[in-house]
């Protein structure tokens, strides 16, 4: 059964039954390596970066991904047996009209509804209502372009639809330039797909007792101050810390070697508004202060007996653009005193028992959701995997640090064994398989405050299951 | 034409070895596409017309005349040279036509001396002919100057003559230029068998083209039909022009269709829009003698179609391909210019547009071609081998002001520069292409500074491509503006309504339009127009009293204020009182002979006869115009086709403007036929009517008459009165307004009509012509906010003022939130004093024109320019550029012009702004003007400009004069607590011990600021990428008109600073 903890009453009874029988359980241990250095922005980087424009990151992305796309395209469209086979054009502008060819470039999606800071500025000046916020910004008028450092071309034909793609994806296209319109009529397309993957460590045993679990949780959204809302979370903490359930449950809880909290630890608040006149600003406090206090309390319990990695998320008091830097220690005077709590970046890349795990707090997938026609979050995650890029919509619609030396979001050298994304509406999982046998477990980690669900990832098997901490009712 | 260079050469590093075959293929493909696109320039071959069986119909767009040999079988003088009209046009199928119209001879009128009879004609003819020829001294082979003299019955337009026609002579000459000579001879007195007599000349100042158009009933841009068998087709060998069809026709056999019904359509005209780029030197605006033309971008579209069918760019040096556009590259600039000139001829456009082409692009090209000795270049018109010349044009119009400009002849192609159109028809804060497209198309345009243009040109194929894309966009925008503003429709309708050639509309003022109508009308009534001798001294002439206003009762009105307007006030007065040249009774003698009942005495003590005796010409013209306007408006309501709607709307607008210009014509003392009795009487009647309305409304709607309140006229201007009925019920106010309008109208002569149009509620009356209010036309809901004359569009106001005043007005009028408005104003003032206002809101711009170099008074922008030249000549603005500046803090007592500074320099160097200057010199006056009527004069000042909100002042610490200079040399900086500013103990980095427990709170506050800046940074820079249309290339735009230009620069700096603050909390974990 998935929900092996269905009712709190049952749990309480179980705890009482086992009350006297104290049996020491050893918490599972594992090897751990944080591989997120590429997501840390350094002071030296920043000195230059804030003067840099976004063209650099697109340029780096294209340069880094081009060989992979070239390779994929050749496999797909060039057999080498026929002389009329399409040729790969090195630059978009060297394309010859009316000649079937292969091009590689970055997609740009023209969207009528895309929020525009100029419109908002204009509205503020003219006192008009700003354009409404939407859950999705795609429309029937969207169109696609492809560009590289030499220029851009409008994409035509019906093989590739604007709805499926977003700005920033690097793609290879087979097609022909129409002489009269100058559009490139797409016949077929391909993505970089999964890159190389390290082999999984060979498990010595197939015994369940050697299982090691990671608890993936996201969207605690603390700060409502409502005890009822806190209850499921408290159950989760009690469960992990072994204060809940029967000996069986305690045993399985003891197998949790690590907890990863994938962002949105506190609830969303408006940023300290620019609307407050300067002379009234003094004494105005950040609205996150109370929530952070509550969070510190929760984390201090959890991290008392299990390593906890906290990733910054969209609502959290850290910088906002990806990659988000770890939340500052000073906000957790209680919890940070234990050595088990650690702030990490978003995206977060680590290796546990030789299994590589890569994940985000959800901004990448949520942004693609808003700017494409995809409804299925798992599908989006799979797209990200196939595009071989974690955050294609950054910097266009997703705020992004202006990298200039490389694009750290390209999943170039290594395809992770597990790819997760936090703050999704529901728990979803699947296995994505690459052309040369790469396998990646994809997981949508649901928002805990809404679903009360935690995802248990078995590191040994990369299997996972949800654990629901239902409320009082 | 030189062959364009080969396709863009790719960079060596990227060059892939390819087989010879592939190269050959590319070459073939190249040749193919070039031929293809050259073919795409040409017009479709015209159908083979048989002049005997087929009629030829075309829309004429331009006309000109030339001297030529008379053609056999055509009317008019049989000995040459004779004037021949050229009519350029386009058929419905899109073929270009040139019709040579023969036989129309110029003429004028003169009075006859006493005793003159039919028999004297021959004598005068021969004498005059001899006299004129004598003046010519036979130099140019003219054998006949005066063609005919005829005795006709005419009447002078000036004054009422009891409808009696008198004999006039109609003198027909062979060439238009003989008219002035003949006039001189006749007016100096000529000796005939009747003795020496002086002949007074009429209509000698009518241009040949206008005369022709009036007599043949041709109006601007109408359709001309040449009936079968009435015209001759020219063989190609005999073509004078590059048009596809050339015909000869007599002036009296073609049909000129009035622009009505089917004939109101517009032919598929080819509109070319182009833009040139020049490579300038650092710090100097490009000069044609020095700096090459490096690119010319062209777009050609068919009028009414949205997408241009030719898109190409001529580049100097190789240029990488641009999808969807043809790239033609040249090694030599001469070849580029020649090729472009050939392109113009090949594509055979009917209209040339662009942005400021008349004052920049065309003169630059012409001068450059001259400098490079490109002899084949200046043939841009439609006439073969006819040299295109650059001339100086002085344009002087009362309505549009004086302006020096350049003109070139494009024989048969219309010049339609977007910039002067916008200057005339729209009042804008800025007229740069950026500002205009942002305003009308809601689109920001990338702006590349000319110093960067040279760098791009000197780069490689890619950088030149970058420039080319920019250049193409600049050539596309004028087309889109024309389409959006429907300029072609509006101007064409204006040409049709007033009957003048299209090209007069931009080149001439309002007068010519009235003259055209006057001539057409007087011809029907056998009236002739005297030649008015201009009074010396230009501006001089008699001043007469203009419209007066009823002194405004200033204040804030919280009850509905009703507005009654006189519809088309001046035209309707002229119609009602039959004010015209033809009805004027200039002297008492004539007046005494007429029954006083048939005479109107005007308030200025002038006399006009009533329509019973003679219906005036001007009233008739006005009546026609207004009736036509009514019809156009009615048709517009019923029409659903957007093209036809555009035409109709253009027409009704043209009719309105024309009707109003008739009054102006009679009052223009430097004009062709001023008559101050008419214009002064018109305004005097207007004043009386306003007064009369006030009296009547105030006496009728009074408590004595049983109304709840005494009505009060609180303000009256030229053609409207504003009434406070006192009652607050909107339905009741509207009812009373309707009633009052009808009541007052009854006391006036038709067609004068007082109309109830709108109610303002609430209403803020600041001063004459300065008010604001919510505009209601129905009792349930207001329509819009209307503000007149409050925040001027003058650019020496910074945008902050505009935003502040607009927002305050909205809060006051729409939200009716007085306190909200006050709080908002206080907040803005506080933000300003604390340096929280975005710098783009504080930028003031002024154009740097040549004249100002020698200005005596020092001006802020000129002084700044001089300083910038010293700093870095390369990035300094050039003459002709607009200089944006802000006012910075200066030494005590420093004058404003010394404190101006470049906003970018201010951002880069963190220089503090003089916020008090902005508060006192920019904000306070307009702010007090709207709050004074509400709060009372002293109270407004004390509440808004003093108080809490003005006490917190943050001064940005300038890095100018940093630690290395002045007293700073002797100071040591010590770290202080981020929170309480206490000097820190050694070893502490960010917070003192007392503040340490609040670290989390402080961190969150600072990180909150950081996230806001990060979001701004990302959104601003990615928006600029979208706008420039490229992800992979750096944004180069320097459009200071764009609201985010400074913001995006500032956020880089702010982000860096804020990050440093956050970093002070130390690295984490």
Please characterize this protein's 3D structure:
The complex is a heterodimer of chains A (473) and B (1069). Chain A has helices at residues 8-17, 43-49, 55-77, 117-126, 227-240, 247-254, 289-302, 363-370, 377-387, 448-451, and strands at 32-34, 87-88, 101-110, 143-148, 151-156, 170-177, 184-190, 213-217, 256-262, 308-311, 341-344, 348-352, 355-360, 418-424, 428-433, 439-446, 453-458, 464-468. In chain A, the strands form three sheets. In chain A, strands 1-12-13-14-16-15 form a six-stranded mixed β-sheet. A six-stranded mixed β-sheet of chain A has the order 11-10-9-8-17-18. Chain A is built from ten helices and 18 strands. In chain A, helix 8 packs across helix 9. Chain A has 473 residues and is of the alpha/beta class. Helix content of chain A is 23%, strand content 22%. Chain A is globular. Chain B is of the alpha+beta class and 1069 residues long. Chain B is built from 28 helices and 34 strands. Classes of the chains: A alpha/beta (473), B alpha+beta (1069). Chains A and B meet through helix 2, helix 3, helix 4 and strand 5 of A and helix 1, helix 10, helix 20, helix 21 and helix 26 of B.
Keywords:
heterodimer, A: 473 residues, alpha/beta, 10 helices, 22% strand, disordered N terminus, B: 1069 residues, alpha+beta, seven-stranded mixed sheet, seven-stranded antiparallel sheet, 19% strand
Helix content, binned percent of chain B: 25-40%
Low-confidence stretches of chain A: 1-8
Strand order of the largest sheet of chain A: 1-12-13-14-16-15
Q: pLDDT under 50 segments of chain B (min length 5)?
A: 1-32, 536-542, 959-965
Strand tally of chain B: 34
Total count of strands of chain A:
18
Q: How would a crystallographer describe the biggest sheet of chain B?
A: 7 strands, mixed
Oligomer: heterodimer
Structural class by secondary-structure content of chain A: alpha/beta
